[in-house]
Amino acid sequence: MQIYLDYSATTPTRPEAIALMQKVLAEQWGNPSSLHAWGQQAAILLERARVQVARLLNAPSETIVFTSGGTESNNLAIMGVARNYTTPQHIIISSVEHSAIAEPVRLLEQWGWQVTRLNVDSLGRVNPIELQSALRPNTVLVSMIYGQSEVGTIQPIAQLCEITRAHGALFHTDAVQVAGRLAIDVQQLPIDLLSLSSHKLYGPQGAGALYVCPGVELVPLFGGGGQESKLRSGTQAIPAIAGFGIAAELAAQEMAIETPRLIHLREQLFDQLADVAGLVPTGDRWNRLPHHVSFSVHSAGGEIFSGKTLVRQMNLAGIGISAGSACNSGKLVPSPILVAMGYCDRLAKSGIRLTLGRDTTGADIDWTVMVLKQVLARLAPQPTLLKV
Asked: C-alpha 297: how far from its chain's center?
């Protein structure tokens, strides 16, 4: 029995997107910048996808800039703002950002920018009061992840947006894990920049988007032909973008039914594992991504019991999950997200994540729980709880 529970890493491309991409590759392969019929057919597809993605956010279509994915969107947001300034300014992020935010901000810091990384509580949430206190006269950008991919916690985005807007700074959010799973309305939220990724919502890999609020000025990452409103030069990947568009449209249509279903399965999984000694939930149980379950796996006998070990054992049983910790050159290192949440280094190496999707059933949850309990019993028959 094969069960995939790593939908936060990537989702299978839905059949409707595959069918459209095949048609585009075979019949509508023109360059959308060309003026002839072949080019204009591709341009129509491009703009249709832009409308489809924009509707997912209740945004005007002209605010959508297509990119290669969430990482490029995040980099364009961060660096695009920073390049407006000839001297270093101040930027605020959280301590639980994805590396696609943390790394470009680290580079800015090396260039002399002032960076404040807001602490989070034990559930992974930023305190809006601390954002208010951290703002400075030269704060030009605040970037806060919407839904944390490792522990599932959703930030109080509305409050964070409002505080930032009142100060006069720009607000960016990495919404890669949220879009298509929870409703986002940029007409109601004062968000200036928002990152999306196609393959997180059943579109193809290699496509993403950045929402850019009207009036926000960005300097592009690289020069070229001036496509995407001069913000992202290069011939657009029309097949991938078309697949992204139809996936976004269908996600918006299905959300009202699919999101409650995922929450039900999520709670079923949490509840069925509640009595397992050694499994401690991480992140905020209620302010949480609808498809996301995560734990810290406590070790036995004082020995490190890594999340990576459990991932391998579950894979042998035909179940795909992921570890919350990273492995750099073969050396297991603590998860910076769990460390930021106050976990000791040993427990920060023991995170696991199970994320659910369109194909997940209640029977899948039951089977996964049975297998996970068996694996834990075999690996750590007498788990010793460690303090966070």
From this structure: 23
Give residue-wise pLDDT tens across range 125-152. Answer: 999 999 999 999 999 999 999 999 999 9
CATH number of 15-251: 3.40.640.10
Distance CA 207, CA 44 (A): 17
User: Tell me: the pLDDT tens digits for 277-322?
Assistant: 888 999 999 999 999 999 998 755 544 568 888 999 999 999 999 9
CA distance 364 to 314: 13
Looking at the annotation, which residues are catalytic?
327
Fold assignment, 3-8+255-379 = Aspartate Aminotransferase, domain 1 (3.90.1150)
Do residues 25 and 215 make contact, with C-beta atoms less than 8 angstroms apart? no
How far is it, in rounded angstroms, from Cα 228 to Cα 19?
25
254-280 pLDDT, tens per residue? 999 999 999 999 999 999 999 988 889
Question: For residue 40, how many other CB atoms are within 10 A of its CB?
Answer: 13
